[in-house]
Known about the structure:
The chain is α/β, with parallel strands linked by helices. It has helices spanning 11-22, 55-60, 72-84, 107-110, 126-142, 160-172, 202-214, 249-257, 276-279, 310-326, and strands at residues 2-6, 29-33, 42-45, 48-51, 65-68, 88-91, 103-104, 120-122, 144-153, 221-228, 235-243, 262-264, 285-292, 299-306.
Amino acid sequence: xxxxxxxxxxxxxxxxxxxxxxxxxxxxxxxxxxxxxxxxxxxxxxxxxxxxxxxxxxxxxxxxxxxxxxxxxxxxxxxxxxxxxxxxxxxxxxxxxxxxxxxxxxxxxxxxxxxxxxxxxxxxxxxxxxxxxxxxxxxxxxxxxxxxxxxxxxxxxxxxxxxxxxxxxxxxxxxxxxxxxxxxxxxxxxxxxxxxxxxxxxxxxxxxxxxxxxxxxxxxxxxxxxxxxxxxxxxxxxxxxxxxxxxxxxxxxxxxxxxxxxxxxxxxxxxxxxxxxxxxxxxxxxxxxxxxxxxxxxxxxxxxxxxxxxxxxxxxxxxxxxxxxxxxxxx
Length: 331
């Protein structure tokens, strides 16, 4: 299978190449794609060197599938052109997520909605992906009414400039590279993406709208606060879930343990709970600190951690491609 990776020189693009290798995706030819500025650079993949090409050149090379991770404006411009050429696009930006004509997919939850006609498929926001993977099995059994979530998001979610800012500040106390308005080392910033008229940020509202779309239930209420923290390796979330039906805590734990893509890490007697350093480089969603909310009935508290560059981005995109291949939906 000929696979194009658009944005192959970026953080997520690099992670996509790793995931394609690790999961033995059937790549017969890799087409690394980036802007004119990066065209001509060399990318190493499975021991071979490949030359980075422009999006137009990539279309002419006729890949079967294109994994996009080059930002919303690139996706809006180029994804339709790839799709018109018969190439299946899996897009990691926010460009197509809330387009009613496009599927927004987390394979464990709603890959069954995909068809051969879906030529642009949206990959959800990193924070949403890990949350809905943990919520979905519980929603099926207990029906979720309301979710209150606070995120603790890694600087890798912003990109290389943010990683450089953190490491420079950690080394010398200051940084010439400033991805954020404020210092991030020894600090946290309750501000991800732009503020909207309702006082929430765009990142927070993504979690509201995307959760409903992926879980195919507009009745689920989501109240989010998104926070950037000086961490590398993964996003964490404190999640409070109110259900319509009551639950037994042992049943909740068993249900999560049996669910695809989830690792329950929950043994507080031995100080076992999910942390970003445990999730780093892994494809699963880690869940722990399972406990009842003692202030109101039918309500659960949990802590969710995942590597935002992997399950939150690259792995989820590759898993979508795997589903398409397995079910003969490409071509």
